[in-house]
């Protein structure tokens, strides 16, 4: 049989993803059972049958390994927003993308990880660092959808921060209270609700009609004033 570089590369990539996930799951399982401070990188590596050096090829810390598992769905958020139909209002696009890529499954493992992060300051700090990266990427996607420039306009960065903050707040509320709605329903309501208030450049706010004298934007204060005559 002939050599097939593409197929071999695909298999190698799948093996790397499987190893990465196995390390994350082991880190979470051990931290939940023993407490994070009692778990060593060597323990995590041994649980998966690899060396500590292999662990370090995937993660810089046990905190990163745990957060990586819980945030796995969120990493696809930006691509999901970008792939929504262009005619879809921004906040509907963000809500649909978030429901697809941020919502938890029903596994106890996912909930255990989310609660462990919430209750462990070092894990929460690692999560905040990861969310900062997501915010930056999401701001670029929002800018492309709305025709704004993140180097000049406030809107894309603000909208990205609001969206990520809403996702985090909805998750914390869902975990900590007796919320009767499913997390996808809660997330959709929260994102569309904040979107109603923040609006979208170039699109009238809900119930608002643009006039010839006013640019059709629900958020004129988020764009710099015109310069020149």
Distance between the termini: 72 Å
What is the subunit arrangement here?
single chain
CATH architecture of the largest domain: Orthogonal Bundle
Reported by name, the CATH topology of the largest domain is: Tetracycline Repressor, domain 2
The name of the CATH superfamily of the largest domain reads Tetracycline Repressor, domain 2
Instruction: State the helical fraction.
Output: 55-70%
Give the tally of β-strands: 0
- β-strand percent reads under 5%
Sheet of most strands:
none
How many H/I helices? 10
CATH first level of the largest domain: Mainly Alpha
DNA-binding region: 40-59
Domain HTH tetR-type: 17-77
GO molecular function: DNA-binding transcription factor activity; transcription cis-regulatory region binding
Organism: Streptomyces sedi
Describe this structure in words.
This protein is mostly helical and 229 residues long. It folds into 2 domains: 57 residues, Homeodomain-like (Arc Repressor Mutant, subunit A), CATH 1.10.10.60; 131 residues, Tetracycline Repressor, domain 2. The chain has 10 helices and no strands. This is TetR family transcriptional regulator. Keywords: DNA-binding, Transcription, Transcription regulation.
Summarize the structure.
By secondary structure, the chain is mostly helical. It has 10 helices and no strands.
């Amino acid at each position: 049989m002939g050599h097939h570089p593409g197929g071999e590369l695909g298999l190698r990539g799948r093996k790397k993803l499987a190893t990465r996930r196995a390390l994350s799951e082991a880190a979470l399982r051990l931290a939940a059972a023993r407490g994070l401070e009692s778990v060593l990188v060597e323990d995590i590596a041994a649980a998966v049958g690899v060396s500590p050096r292999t662990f370090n090829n995937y993660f810089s810390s046990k905190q990163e390994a745990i957060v990586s598992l819980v945030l796995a769905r969120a990493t696809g958020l930006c691509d999901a927003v970008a792939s929504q139909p262009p005619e879809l209002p921004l906040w509907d696009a963000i809500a649909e993308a978030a429901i697809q890529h941020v919502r938890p499954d029903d596994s106890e493992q996912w909930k255990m990880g989310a609660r462990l992060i919430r209750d462990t300051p070092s894990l929460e700090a690692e999560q905040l660092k990861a969310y900062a990266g997501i915010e930056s990427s999401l701001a670029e996607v929002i800018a492309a959808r709305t025709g704004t420039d993140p180097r000049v306009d406030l809107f894309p960065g603000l909208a990205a921060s609001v969206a990520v903050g809403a996702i985090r707040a909805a998750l914390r509320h869902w975990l900590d209270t007796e919320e009767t709605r499913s997390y996808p329903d809660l997330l959709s309501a929260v994102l569309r609700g904040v979107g109603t208030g923040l609006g979208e450049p170039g699109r009238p706010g809900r119930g608002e009609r643009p006039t010839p004298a006013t640019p059709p934007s629900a958020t004129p204060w988020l764009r710099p004033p015109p310069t020149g005559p």
